Amino acid sequence: MANCANCTNELSERGFRELEQFIDELSDKNGALISALHRAQEIFGYLPKEVQQFVAKKLNIPVSKVYGVVSFYSFFTMIPKGKYPISVCMGTACYVRGADKVLDEFKRELNIEVGETTADGNFSLDALRCVGACGLAPVVLVGEKVYGRVTPDQVKSILKEYE
User: Domains in the chain: how many in total?
Assistant: First the structure.
């Protein structure tokens, strides 16, 4: 999926129509860039250059401004995420309790690095600063499901839940 052979299918006409409708319905287009990008990422799952160009055109702003925002904020991604995005909290409490070892085990099991997606498109791996669940440290998110007090030994069983 990282080399996305079917990007044109993923970037469907329907998706562009939905995004266009969202932007057209905005009462004030000035200052709407973040909202438009959030909606675009909800629709497409990521923000490739074609989507950034579309947003720039619809908001009548330079593509460079759109790219600047997309590349600055860590929430936005220009790379397709896996079907099951995995995020390992690397905040202080999680790190002190072994999050680095948990992250290393995910990298080993999935054979990918942070920021990458598995070849089958099932999993992507990210490290986060803090998820605000320090009492459960170390914390792993798979999609929106929270796993607390995760050890490296639990990584295989977590991944099996999504096979």
Answer: 2
